[in-house]
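During the first year of the project, the team set up a workflow for recording each protein of interest as an amino acid sequence followed immediately by a discrete structure-token representation. This format lets reviewers and collaborators read both layers of information side by side without switching files. As required by the reporting guidelines, we include two representative entries from the current panel. The first entry is reproduced here exactly as it appears in our internal archive.
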Amino acid sequence: MTSPRWWTMRPAHNLKPATYRCPLCGGFVPALSDHVLIAPEGDTSRRRHAHTACVRAAHQAGRLPTKDEWRATQPRQPGLLARLFRRAG
């Protein structure tokens, strides 16, 4: 399986007494604590619960880019007018 190109991240509030394991550090995310949900390429079926500090550190290190950050690194396609004039010329 290839690694995700970008991640969605949003704050989460655990309202039920469930404990999750942080995929970034391997530690437990305590029940009823504030944390972050991360999902690779917006795929909510693969979302994971993580510590806020772990997500912040991974994001600053460049391991969890957002969609906008990933898109900014991609080559831009010529605009519609440029493509039309290229064909006409």
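The second entry, processed by the same pipeline in the following quarter, appears below.
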Amino acid sequence: MIDVTEHDFHPSRRIARATPDSPGGELAARIRTLAAESVPARDRSLPAALCTVAAEVGFEDANGTDSANATAFADVLEPVVTTVTLLEGYVSLRLTLVDDAEALADWSMPTVDRDDAILASDFLHASAYATVAETPVSDRRRLELYRLLLEGSTTLTRQYLARSDADELVAPNERVDTAERTDPAVCADTDETVDGRFEAPATLAETAAAIGSTAVDASAETRTALRQYSHAMMTALATQSSATSDDDPQASAARVLFDPTCQHAVVTDAELAYATPAVERSLERARTALEALADDAAGTDVSSPLGRLERATRVPFHRE
């Protein structure tokens, strides 16, 4: 297994060293501070973990268990994960602007000045694109990464607008309560959760996996399966954290994906705890996506990329 836990990513350093010629180089200090604070710690970021493990899966698919190219892999991985965490900071700020105090707790910043949040989020968005340029890959593959980032950004923008329009059309006293949105009785007759707040995090997760797997030139089939897995997993975890008093299942999943020795990974096969039908449907889609990867996986032990992806579908939903 490639050891990726020792590599550290510091998007805040990029923010701190921005020059007048770089994206947001002339921003006020308070904007830079807000931008830096909105970027999550790598070890608690599920999108960063999904990007990392997607790259591992793609790398091992092409190279088997040979670690001779591990240094080159790490050189590619660092800028793409930084891109994802910058994009995650952008999503966090934008969700705060769209949903205000009602924003999903795992994905929103405390109340901030609207103009400051717009400037900081635009800076993070531009920085994510700038970081792609530093990825040591071929021009063709770098163009693919830009296309994926643009695709994800465009989808996110549409989701923000849809969410904002929906809130404007509903009076505050008529808005559906969070618990009701995720109640099994409300979601029982649908294939997806009706809570639009989960769409942006799921899109971010899917984009992260696409970027990670594309950076190492994974096959089209592998990329598709990883995108489907990541979208389904984020939907399940976001639904779980909203419907229960869970202490951040996304961070728990990230720990499992980053660290195969994580003690939280010791689980039983007991029935899922606190899982609504919407959560279980999302988990089933994630497992179906993993099945598409199983035949081509270099290894399926608990420390392998595929093994960690499978464990992440169980660990955050159990109580030890």
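For the second entry, the following points were noted during internal review. The mean pLDDT is 78. The domain at 11-317 is CATH 1.10.600.10 (Farnesyl Diphosphate Synthase). Both points are flagged for discussion at the upcoming steering committee meeting.
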